[in-house]
TrEMBL record:
Keywords: Cell cycle, Cytoplasm, Nucleus. Residues 173-277 form the Cyclin-D1-binding protein 1-like C-terminal domain. Residues 22-161 form the Cyclin-D1-binding protein 1-like N-terminal domain. Signal peptide: none annotated. It comes from Hippolais icterina. Belongs to the CCNDBP1 family. Gene3D superfamilies: I/LWEQ domain, Talin, central domain. GO terms for cellular component: cytoplasm; nucleus. This is CCDB1 protein. InterPro entries: GCIP-like, GCIP-like_N, GCIP_C.
């Protein structure tokens, strides 16, 4: 499941039929986990014949889950497929863990681990009802997750800058550092000027994701192969924003190396420009959406130019 590629089926693929079948296989797996757990919850142990029947049923349930997952062709969207694959993998891994727990548990009593493992399978199987039903919903979910991470990073950095001259004040004791006037733990005035432009880029990242997310919600469709592929391209490039924001944020802590900051700012700026380009060229961006694309591209350039000016002397 984790490594394999789907077969492009010969018969026409029907999304509603796929979801019905996947829901059923997840439900059966949940029931088999309950049966297996109950059989080994107290003595006497099941007979050899019962064990064979139980393990066959578990195996069939898991094979059915994997088989239905394999129905989902890549053409339905790689973002959707990854989410379904992760959910399927979780079910399979949950069942492996439950089986291991039963094999290693003392016979006399129902162990805490066995209860937790059984609950883990139930939880993994319940996830099917929360999965996005097509690639547009999957990309909305992926973009919303990216936006959440970037929002946190922006807030954390703003907090650090507001809290004054010493961002490490809360975590480092005097004796660990020696002299507290140590330049390595402070931002100079020049650092702060540079960092305000970096904050501008981080805020532009948040605004970019917000706007692209709103555009995908409003105009995104998953009716044609072209629309599905455009949504996947957007999700793929948006996935690069959060790691780029993190790298920039890390390089902003003292002691500040202006060249490292410039390099990380340039990386982030380039990812943001690419996101805006891909959005603009796709179906999620009708003429009504073009204003914010231009505005944000301008904001990225403006902040990046300020970073370049502040670091020019370092080159």
């Amino acid at each position: 499941v984790a490594e394999g590629e789907p077969g492009e089926g010969r018969e026409p693929f029907e999304l509603p039929r796929f979801w019905d079948a996947l829901g059923q296989t997840f439900q059966v797996t949940s029931q088999e986990a309950t049966k297996l757990s109950l059989a080994f919850s107290r003595p006497p142990l099941p007979s050899a014949e019962d064990c064979r029947k139980l393990s066959e049923d578990v195996q069939n349930a898991i094979l059915a889950v994997a088989t239905v997952y394999y129905w989902l062709p890549k053409g339905q969207g790689t973002t959707l497929r990854k989410m379904v694959r992760d959910a399927t993998t979780e079910v399979v891994e949950g069942m492996i863990q439950l089986t291991d727990t039963i094999l290693n548990a003392p016979v006399e009593s129902l162990s805490q681990e066995q209860l937790i493992s059984t609950g883990g399978v139930w939880e993994a199987c319940d996830q099917v009802s929360n999965l996005p039903r097509d690639n547009q919903a999957a990309v909305v979910s992926a973009l919303a997750a990216c936006l959440g991470v970037v929002k946190d990073a922006v807030e954390e950095m703003e907090q650090a800058l507001v809290e004054g001259q010493d961002p490490y004040g809360d975590i480092m004791e005097d004796e660990e550092l020696g002299f507290r006037g140590n330049r390595d733990t402070y931002w100079s005035e020049a650092d702060r000027q540079l960092l305000s432009s970096c904050m501008g880029l981080m805020k532009a990242s948040k605004a970019c994701l917000k706007k692209v997310l709103a555009a995908v919600k409003a105009h995104g469709k998953a009716d044609s192969p072209e629309q599905i592929a455009q949504l996947d391209d957007l999700a793929d490039i948006a996935n690069e924003i959060s790691p780029s924001v993190d790298e920039l944020a890390l390089s902003m802590y003292p002691p500040v190396n202006p060249l490292a900051v410039r390099l990380n700012a340039a990386k982030l700026a380039s990812v943001l420009k690419k996101v805006l380009e891909i959005a603009k060229a796709s179906h999620v961006c009708p003429p009504s959406e073009e204003g914010w694309v231009q505005f944000l591209a301008g904001a990225v350039d403006h902040n990046m130019n300020k970073v370049k000016n502040f670091t020019q002397g370092q080159l």
